[in-house]
Design goal:
Strand order of the largest sheet: 2-1-6-5-8
Bound molecules: 4-amino-2-(cyclopentylamino)pyrimidine-5-carboxamide
Largest sheet: 5 strands, parallel
Shape: elongated
Number of helices: 9
Mean pLDDT: 95
Number of strands: 8
Radius of gyration: 23 Å
Structural class: alpha/beta
Length: 247
């Protein structure tokens, strides 16, 4: 069983306790698949006032996380194990399924959460080796981004989710969105369930699910189809959708 160690550096350690002690995260830790540790950057302030931020050179307001404090914190947590030190940042590369998958193969991740207006660039230059963004919007701190990354990564570790391989069918795992799902009752407020799902024909169910996934992706996220692995059946079905739309 392959486990992952995740260290988080933050000014708001309490933001992690609720999420990391609930449901999937708790199970992952209980099963020994996740070793999670949070570190308070303020413990590395190294001055009596515990000051961690200062005004930006050049003016403009807001406060900047000091380079010496953050570098000291990272160096204290880092071992010589070559673990990537990742800053959560709106300037980072976008977190997509492929990035989460790549990170889930690592034995250890060190996540750094910025706050205030940002982080002194010299700490990034000296102590950070990767920057990741969870989307094109700005948050008040990197903590929620770190939690999103942790959730996306940990659920890909074999054994964390109940059904082995259920992740393979997720939206994005195969480059397409997932189609619709149904469960009991078979009739609800006048709405039924597609007959193929109750037909017992597994091959037909698989084909229907694949087509629903392709249709939904084509309608909502056509950009994803440019990089999705498609077979001849997929291409023929998409061509059919294009033709029907062209009428
Ligand atoms: C957005 C993201 C992030 C922020 C993102 C430094 C000051 C960054 C506050 C922080 N905003 N962090 N990781 N899109 N804000 O991932």
């Amino acid at each position: 069983m392959k486990a992952i160690k995740i260290d988080v550096l933050t000014l708001f350690p309490d933001m992690f306790s609720a999420v990391m002690s609930e449901s999937m995260m708790w199970k992952a830790r209980d099963q020994g698949l996740l070793d999670f540790q949070v570190h308070d950057i303020r413990d590395y302030a190294g001055n009596r006032q515990r000051k961690v931020d200062d005004a930006p050179y050049g003016g403009g307001g807001g406060m900047i996380l000091k380079a010496d404090v953050l570098t000291r914190a990272i160096e204290a947590v880092k071992a010589e194990d070559g673990a990537p030190v990742i800053l959560l940042s709106p300037q980072g590369r976008l977190l997509r399924h492929e990035v989460a998958s790549e990170l889930s193969q690592q034995p250890r991740l060190i996540l750094v959460c910025g706050h205030y207006e940002g982080v002194d660039e010299r700490a990034i230059e000296l102590a950070i080796n990767d920057e990741i963004s969870i989307g094109d919007y700005v948050l008040t701190g990197g903590e929620l981004a770190a939690l999103v990354l942790i959730d996306a990564v940990v659920r890909l570790i074999p054994g964390v989710l109940g059904a082995e391989g259920a992740q393979q069918r997720d939206s994005h795992a195969d480059g397409a969105l997932e189609g619709p799902h149904y469960t009991r009752p078979s009739a609800f407020r006048g709405l039924g369930v597609p007959a193929v799902l109750t037909s017992g024909h597994h091959a037909e169910v698989d084909r229907w699910r694949r087509r629903q996934a392709l249709k939904r992706t084509w309608e909502r996220r056509p950009d994803l189809l440019l990089n999705a692995p498609l077979d001849d059946d997929d291409r023929a079905y998409l061509a059919q959708l294009e033709d029907a739309a062209g009428d």
